[in-house]
Specification:
This protein is an alpha/beta fold. Helix content is 18%, strand content 31%. It has 2 helices and 8 strands; from the N terminus they run βαββββαβββ. The strands form 2 sheets. The chain has a 4-stranded mixed sheet, with helices on one face. A 4-stranded mixed sheet has the order 5-8-7-6, with helices on one face. β3 and β4 form a beta hairpin. The protein starts with 6 loop residues before the first strand and ends in a 9-residue tail after the last strand. 24% of the residues are buried. The model has no long low-confidence stretch (mean pLDDT 94).
Length: 136
Amino acid sequence: MRGALHHVELWVPDLARGVAEWGWLLGELGYEQFQDWPAGRSWSRNGTYLVIEQSPALSADRHERLRPGLNHLAFQSGTPEQVDALMENAPGHGWRPLFAEKYPHAGGPQVYAGYLENSDGFEAELVAGGLEDPGR
C-alpha cells in the first residue's frame, strides 16, 4: 500500500450541490459515504477517500481545470457499457459531457472513456477497463 493515494480533498463553493453531484457519481462507482460534518462529506472505497468541503477560506467561486493545479480525476469505471450508462445518466445529476463529438475515444483510439464536467468546473474521466485492458 505504500505510495497508494490516501485521499483527495476538493473545495466546492456550494456544499449541497457538490454533495449531490459528486455523491451521485461516487455512489455509482461503488464508493460509500465515510464521513459527514457541517462543512463537508467524504466517500471511501478500497482504502482511498474523496472529500467534498465548502471551506470558509475559498478564494473563488468556481474551479478552473485549465489553470495550474488539478485538471481532472480519472476513475476506472467498469465495462464500456457501464461507462455508456454513466454518461447517459450524468446530465440528470449536474454533470455535462465534454468532448462529446469524440466520445468514447477523446483520449485516443486505445482508450474507451467519457469526460464530464460538473457545475463547479470539476472534470471527471470515466475509463472502461483497467491499465491492462483499455476497453474496446
